[in-house]
Amino acid sequence: MDQKVECTWVDNLVFDANLDGHHVIMDASPEVGGEDKGARPKPLLLASLAGCTGIDVVSILKKMRVDFEGFRMEVTANLTEEHPKIYDKMLVTYYFKGKNLPMDKLEKAVQLSEEKYCGVSAMLKKAGLIEYKIIIE
């Protein structure tokens, strides 16, 4: 199935991306002539990775009947110096809050997302290394 995103120039370096009726404004940093009116495109890739794997992990943990009080992710990436600048190494850190969380099930959910379900992860792995870490807070 094909997917389509419409991206329209607004002004200067500002673009409005329409993703199934949800708008995301993108802009460049002031250092390169932008006006900081929206997110930068490359960090949106990292947000997509977090969203994709996060949806997987929550869905899998629900099926495993693992109850948690909180869940967040942090994605850090190394941006290469040479053009085109790409992320060659990424680290996804999963932070869980809760009592008596079963680490084996958390690890299994993350592993299934990483190796089987998350299409964003599969695409980004072709560009660089992705590592994962789990922390229970």
Task: Please give a handful of descriptors for the protein shown.
137 residues; alpha+beta; GMP Synthetase, Chain A, domain 3; 3-stranded antiparallel beta sheet; 3-stranded mixed beta sheet; 3 helices; elongated; Putative redox protein
In short:
By secondary structure, the protein is α+β, with helices and mostly antiparallel strands. The protein has three helices and six strands; from the N terminus they run E-E-E-H-E-E-H-H-E.
Mean pLDDT: 97
β-strand amount: 25-35%
CATH architecture of the largest domain: 2-Layer Sandwich
CATH top level of the largest domain? Alpha Beta
User: In which order are the strands of the major sheet placed?
Assistant: 1-2-3
CA radius of gyration is 17 Å
Unreliable runs, pLDDT <50, ≥5 residues? none
Q: Helix amount, in percent?
A: 25-40%
In the CATH hierarchy, the third-tier topology of the largest domain is known as GMP Synthetase, Chain A, domain 3
The CATH superfamily of the largest domain bears the name K homology (KH) domain
Oligomer: single chain
Q: What string, H for helix and E for strand, traces the elements in order?
A: EEEHEEHHE
Protein name: Putative redox protein
InterPro entries: KH_dom-like_a/b, OsmC/Ohr_fam, OsmC/Ohrsf
Pfam families: OsmC
Organism: Tindallia californiensis
Describe this structure in words.
The protein is 33% helix and 34% strand. The protein is an alpha+beta fold and 137 residues long. It folds into two domains: 1-39; 41-136, K homology (KH) domain (GMP Synthetase, Chain A, domain 3), CATH 3.30.300. The protein has a three-stranded antiparallel β-sheet, with no helix packed on it. Strands 4-5-6 form a three-stranded mixed β-sheet, with helices on one face. β1 and β2 form a beta hairpin. The termini are far apart.
